[in-house]
Amino acid sequence: MEMELRLLTYVVTIAEEGGVSAAARRLHLTQPTLSRQLRELERQVGSTLFERTGRGLTPTPAGQALVRRARTVLAEAEAALDDARLAGQGLSGQFTIAFAGSGINGPLGGALGRLRRELPRVDLRLRESFSDPEMSGLVLDSQADLAVQRLPARDARLATHVWWREPLTLFLPAGHPLAHGSRPAPLTALGQIPLVIWPREVSPRSYDEIIALCHQAGVVPRIGAEGRSSQTLLALVAAGFGAAVLADSHRALRRVGVTPRPLEGTETVLHLVWRAADQAPLLHRVRDTLVALQHHGQERPHAVDIEGGDPGAVDMP
Q: Are 158 and 172 part of one and the same domain?
């Protein structure tokens, strides 16, 4: 049996007003129209829903049962409409962000707090990854809606936006002579100590980036050890295996036995990465919130480049 929501509204209003005349005025209906609708509803139910007591109407047991359930149904229907409105405005829904250490140790940590405050109805989910190719792959496979990463995949299906700039930093064993300089280390320092580096099969672009810096400095790199996560690289540095080249934001980890020195003349960027064809309102809302972060403590990226970007970047629509 189908029953229109408006009929449930009618029966609840009659119960609340205690009569058809008052309910009709509240519903902006004529009394005969509402009486006819009540009779139709009683016909569908197969029972009388109201009985006259004094000058008003009181729900019968059948009426009480219907009014009680009708209030729940109407509340759920209103909630469903609210959910649809919020989703259409990008204010609710589920949203997954893929990230690595350079993001969460940098601006993303504070930005997540802001997202939670400004979008309290959004089910914000996080997917940690230690691989740039994997993060781009998560976005392409719709397992993540947005990635915050240094080296996005070169894929026409991805849109990217430069979000944060910072120097590359040489993380040195605390006892090494290079660790005592107060100024940025020259690139030639890469030839004065073995390097603790990502395996090329794990992150070829990160590996090639560091080797390119060595070639730029005119030095031959010596590989002291390899690690598959930032934490492992820093642990190997503290153990004296060599120095690691990482984004400066990794200094937030404060690894005992490790001293950071920015590398002179270097810069790395964090990108916001999403599917170019994705026009979901929630994606626009999250992305715009991240880009709009202002200079305020840890919530702000060190530098936001809204106009520019790398040659492969795609401007936001």
A: no
Q: Is 310 a member of any domain? A: no
Predicted local confidence at residue 101, as pLDDT: 75
**Is the domain of 13 the same as that of 79?**
yes
CB 240 within 8 A of CB 250: no
Kindly give the pairing relationship between strand 243-247 and strand 93-99. unpaired
**Is 316 within 8 Å of 286 (Cβ atoms)?**
no
Q: Domain containing 74: what range?
A: 5-88
Percent of the chain at pLDDT > 70 equals 91
pLDDT of residue 3: 60
Among the candidates 88, 110, 128, a domain finishes at: 88
- Is residue 186 a part of any domain in this protein? yes
- Split into its structural domains, the chain has a count of 3
Do 189 and 252 belong together in one domain?
Answer: yes
Nearest-angstrom CA–CA distance, 96 and 127: 7
Residue 193 pLDDT more than 90?
Answer: yes
pLDDT of residue 1 exceeding 80, the answer is no
| Structure-block tokens of residue 307 | 């106009």
**Residue 240 is assigned to a structural domain of this protein:** yes
Name the nearest CA neighbour of 184 among 201, 166, 169: 169
- Please write the tens of the pLDDT for every residue from 100-135: 877 787 788 888 988 999 889 899 999 998 788 899
Report d(CA 130, CA 202) in Å as an integer: 9
